[in-house]
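User: Quick sanity check before I run a bigger batch. Here is a single chain. Can you write out its predicted 3D structure?
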Amino acid sequence: MNRCLRDRTLFMLAEGDGTAAERQHLDTCPDCAARQQRMMAVSALAGRVLRESPLPRPRPKAAPAVGRWLVPAMALAMVVAVVWHEVPAGPDPALVATDASAEELSLASVSTALFGDDDDADAEAVAEPDDGSDLQVALLGDWPCEGQDAVLDPRCEQ
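Assistant: Done. Predicted structure follows.
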């Protein structure tokens, strides 16, 4: 053999396996013989350590997974409690229906409660300021926002 033996082959030869050519190479090659002796010394040391040292302690069991969901559950409960507390509770429907002092509900009273009275004061406050467009209509007889010029006129709403 021209090349030295692999580590696996050296180990198999130590155990009694291998071919006659491999055994002959081991007998004639000082490098392979030295490598085999080092491997066998390390193997013997590992075997002794495993036999004589105490067994490793078993790993403790993992704590229950309560910690994983407990904090988010508590946070969710706090949020629900705060939101529930902040939501105003309406009057008890049974008390409202049986209250003798409550006035009769009608469409007019509901409309007034929702939309207020039809005062012109509100309409005047919302009306647009006079920019002369009404005067222009009166003098020229047409609206300023009619036709093709309406696109370019900033007073016209699109």
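Helices lie at 7-14, 20-28, 30-52, 66-86, 93-98, 107-115, 120-126, 133-140.

User: Great, the batch can go ahead then.
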